[in-house]
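Section handout, structural biology tutorial.
Before the tutorial, make sure you can parse a SMILES string by hand: atoms, branches in parentheses, ring closures as digits. In the record below the ligand is NAP, and the chain has 287 residues. In the tutorial you will relate the predicted structure tokens back to the input. Do not try to memorize them.
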Amino acid sequence: MIELALGTAQFGLSYGVAGRGHVVPEDEVRAILRRARQLGVRVLDTAAAYGDIETRLAGLAGDAPFSVVSKLPALGGACAADTDDFVKAAIQRTRAKLGSLLSAILFHRAEDLLGVHGGAAWQACDVDGANRDLRFGVSCYDAETLDRICERVPISIAQLPGSALDQRLHGEPSPSRAKVEIHLRSVFLQGLLLLPEEKATARVPSSSPSIARFHSWCRERGLPWLDAALGLAKGLPGVRVCVVGVDSQAHLEAIAAAWETVPALHAPALATADLDVIDPRRWSTIS
Ligand SMILES: NC(=O)c1ccc[n+]([C@@H]2O[C@H](COP(=O)([O-])OP(=O)(O)OC[C@H]3O[C@@H](n4cnc5c(N)ncnc54)[C@H](OP(=O)(O)O)[C@@H]3O)[C@@H](O)[C@H]2O)c1
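Predicted structure of the complex:
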């Protein structure tokens, strides 16, 4: 059973291709988190790199017993000895900020586990010792990278992108990935899938043919874009948690209502392998 989770990048950064251009105000974040709990959301996704939200999150969550997944900052060019210190210190900082809410830590930069010091970085997590109360994993941009990491270190959780246009998860899963809990992100492509067609293609011109196909598919079925995006996310195989980003309580209400009713959908014809469309790092956006 796939479960809905809430991302927090929007709460700490001016985020996304369709974003409102500033961080979500603190009162709104409090209200969103309160409502999320009422709606049954248990998991929050955050990171040391999302502005100061990792620091503020526990306070904003109040008494709500969320389970928080956070991410370590990128290692950069650390050497082996530095790697050990860097990772241990980063874990301690995240623990101090999130306390008992913290349930898992991901390497934000997948390459940090694949590089020459990847083994040292993993050892520093001390998954069977000091940090055995936490789960450790990685955030990736594609499943092939995840498979390479699984062959190297025994991670138990990973975050991957997937959406109506990015259906790469339908590919053959490697056996090494079988025990990894998959958290999906980017189901609205930072909100691109929920913008009117003209606005979306004006913001990300490379997405034009794919967005046109998505809109006509929704029109033919009388499906709102939100329902289609969530249904197609539910249809991706092997996903345990679906992380969505919201800028307001109204967004959350709309997502929760659609999530409740929409079935898992399949539309292979909407998939594209064009990274200029499905990888936001490659977007040359026009605002
Ligand atoms: N590990 C990583 O490297 C990584 C990278 C990206 C994201 N993440 C995580 O994933 C979370 C979600 O980010 P994402 O990129 O995956 O975003 P997303 O969920 O694909 O899209 C979120 C955006 O969709 C729009 N939206 C949401 N609900 C809506 C509604 N009901 N009606 C209209 N528009 C709506 C909002 O944008 P507007 O209001 O601005 O239109 C919102 O900011 C982040 O908060 C973060 O925790 C992780």
